[in-house]
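Hello,

I think I submitted the pyridoxal-5'-phosphate job twice by accident. Can you confirm which output corresponds to this input? Input:
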Amino acid sequence: MKIWMNGKLVDRGAAHVSVFDHGLLYGDGVFEGIRAYGGKVFQCAAHIERLYDSARHIRLAIPYTKQEMIDAIYETLHANNVADGYVRLVVTRGEGNLGLSPFRCHEPTTFIIADQIALYPKEMYDEGMAVIIAKTVRVSPTMVPSAAKTLNYLNNILAKIEAVDAGVAEAVMLNTAGNVSECTGDNIFLVRDGELVTSPLSASVLPGITRGIVLRLARENGVPVRERDVTPRELYEAQECFLTGTAAEVIAVTKIDDRQIGDGRVGPVTQKLFAAFRQYIKSGKWD
Ligand SMILES: Cc1ncc(COP(=O)(O)O)c(C=O)c1O
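Support: Only one job matched these inputs. Its output is below.
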C-alpha cells in the first residue's frame, strides 16, 4: 500500500508521524472520509470545501491548494489501484512541543490513505439495524464547532463504546438541549406522517455530504422534507428511521433501544431514497 504523505507517495511502512505531532498528542487537526466510485471521487468539490472550512474553523492553514489536494487524492487512488473504495484525507497541526499552543507547530502533516471500507454487514442493509440512544451527550458548537470535521472524536468514541456494550453497531447522540443530534459517524433521519425530518445543523450536527444529497433527492422525488429539532420520543415513535454517511451510505434503523421502529422492516420512504441514492451514484452524473 502506498500512502501520500506530505507531498509524496511512500510505502505504508515508511508513512510515519512524529510523536510530537499535535494531531496525535491532542487530536488537533481535520479530516475527510471520501468515497470513489468507478475511479471517480464522489462529491469531490464538496469534501474539499468542507476540509478547508474545517481547517478555517480551527485556524489551521492547509499548505496545499484545493486543486493540489484533489490531484493528490487521485494520485493515491491510482497508486493503489483503487477505483471503488474509500479515501481518508488527514491534515494535522503538525509537529510541535509538549505544550498546547498550536502556534509552535510550523508545518502541518498531511496524508492520504486509499483503502476499502465496509462499515456494516450486508444483512443490515436488507433488514435494517438496531441502535441505542447514548448517554454521552454530543459536544455543543460552543465547545467544538460541529461544522468542523476535526480529529477530536473522543466524544463520538465514548458513545460508540456504549453502542458496542449494548451489542449494536451505532449510537444516536443527543445534544445539550436533549434533542437528537446525530450518530457517532452518521446523520440521522426519521419519517413521520409521510414527511422526512432531520435535525438542523444548529443541533450540533456535522453538515454531512450524504445528508445534503439525501435531502435533495427526497425533494426531487416528491418527499416533503423538514429540518427541525427532533425529540428522542419522536425518534421512538417514527414510522421509519435511517442513517446517512459516506461510509454507511443509506441504512435503515428498525430498532432504537428496546423500541421497534414502524413495523420493524425497512420502510417505503427509506427504500425509495436508498434506490434514488444508488441510482444517483450509478448515473455518474455528479462531480
Ligand atoms: C459525526 C459524523 N456525522 C455525520 C457524518 C456523515 O457525513 P458525510 O455524509 O459527509 O460522510 C460523519 C461522517 O463523516 C460523521 O463523522
